[in-house]
């Protein structure tokens, strides 16, 4: 039963991650807007052909653009395929991180559920999510770093792009150029975020699903699964966005040999971000985050429920 939970969670996570990857990429680009250490901030929002005609002062004063505008500009300047930049890293991340967290959560949930009543308190669900998310994030951090860098590469000046060919190439270059430790850059943030996301997402889904069925609002079917999924996605997005912004910036920072990195760590990144851009900068990319969390969570749990039906006899 334990192995089965890992397989079911892994299949559902890979399907959900790959299908919502463009939304995740747009979210990452939005979260990186406004970083002051970039050599030419205009490149964050302008097409390469036009960026040279825009001064830095003009670029800095430009209003922040929304997810639709960013998506359109990515397609215009980098092509449609750019929306799937880093999808190989996403698949590897879901294989490592989500398979681990979903399987471990399932094991803990089954172990802690009262055998007589079949009930599991919300607090126990949250604790199970915290543990499962932390372990999964530690396992999947290298793929997470590679995914963020591959998604963000297109916004850098051409001569500064990393141009990773695949997730394997990304991991290899990072190890060679920055050391093995770079694969776990931002791991504390990744673990914290994963604990919050997993606890809020999985616990909310189970709790809302149980409430809907117990109160006979709907039967245990796709309508219940979709409703509980949307609730879980919203709660997870609100809880995790500030950590996600800091995680993205720390993972994406680039420092040459002997050069001072833009951020000394997560706390330094948070302080500099709030000082330079205000507290609401921690909720940059929230619209694409919720736009991605909603579909991702729905696809994740609807697929999970269907996979469980298919594998119920195994």
General description of the model:
The protein is mostly helical. It is built from 12 helices and no strands. α1 runs antiparallel to α6 and α10 packs across α12 (286-310). The protein is globular. It is a multi-pass membrane protein. Its main location: membrane. Keywords: Membrane, Repeat, Transmembrane, Transmembrane helix, Transport. InterPro entries: MCP (IPR002067), MCP_dom_sf (IPR023395), MCP_transmembrane (IPR018108), Mito_Metabolite_Transporter (IPR050391). This is Mitochondrial uncoupling protein 5-like.
Rg, Å, rounded: 20 Å
Low-pLDDT windows of residues: 39-61
Helix content: 55-70%
Strand content of the residues, in percent?
under 5%
Order of helices and strands: HHHHHHHHHHHH
Largest sheet: none
Give the helices and strands, then pairings.
Blueprint lengths: L1 H18 L1 H11 L16 H4 L4 H6 L5 H12 L8 H26 L9 H31 L14 H12 L8 H28 L7 H31 L13 H12 L8 H25 L4
Helix pairs in contact: 1-6, 1-12, 2-12, 6-7, 7-9, 9-10, 10-11, 10-12
Concise structural overview:
With 314 residues, this protein is an all-alpha fold.
Features:
single chain; 314 residues; mainly alpha; 12 helices; 0% strand; globular
